[in-house]
Amino acid sequence: MAPHVSTPQTQFSPPPPPEALIGADRETVAMRLGKPVFLMRGQASEIWQYRAQGCVLDLFLYEDGGTLRVAYLEARDLSGVAVSSGDCLRAVHSVRQPWPDATMAGT
């Protein structure tokens, strides 16, 4: 009988459903999805954009009680046609890039 070889497994949280991101603050989004490929800051808002496997996921954060939180999100393919936010979120989650300084997301 061949010896059992253990392969290391990295613990990753499962991808959140899209509705779980509504109301999430910056740090929660960064922890769950990693560093966005594009981040645009406004006076009391931010847009975080992620891309993966032919889809683009935009998160729109607005100030709520002094904290920026996800108000809504949109998913589309590369030509701009709307796609399933759940499918796109799973794709983004699977290729997320760690953001070691995520606590600095708001600075």
Explain what this protein looks like in three dimensions:
By secondary structure, this protein is α+β, with helices and mostly antiparallel strands. It has a single domain, classed as 2-Layer Sandwich (Beta-lactamase Inhibitory Protein, Chain:B, domain 1), CATH 3.30.1450. Helix content is 21%, strand content 31%. It has a four-stranded antiparallel sheet. A hairpin with a 2-residue loop joins strand 3 (55-64) and strand 4. The longest helix is centred in the last third of the chain and has 10 residues, at 85-94. The chain is globular and about 35 Å long.
What's the short story on this structure?
The protein has 3 helices and 4 strands.
**Secondary-structure-derived class:** alpha+beta
Total domain count:
1
- In helices, the fraction of residues equals 10-25%
Give the strand line-up of the largest sheet.
1-2-3-4
Give the percentage of residues in beta strands: 25-35%
The secondary-structure element order is HHEEEEH
Low-confidence stretches: 1-11
Shape: globular
Overall pLDDT metric: 85
Q: Which CATH first-tier class would you pick?
A: Alpha Beta
Helix tally equals 3
CA gyration radius, whole angstroms: 16 Å
User: How many β-strands, per DSSP?
Assistant: 4
* N/C terminus separation: 57 Å
Here the CATH topology equals: Beta-lactamase Inhibitory Protein, Chain:B, domain 1
At CATH level 2, the architecture is 2-Layer Sandwich
Most strands sheet:
4 strands, antiparallel
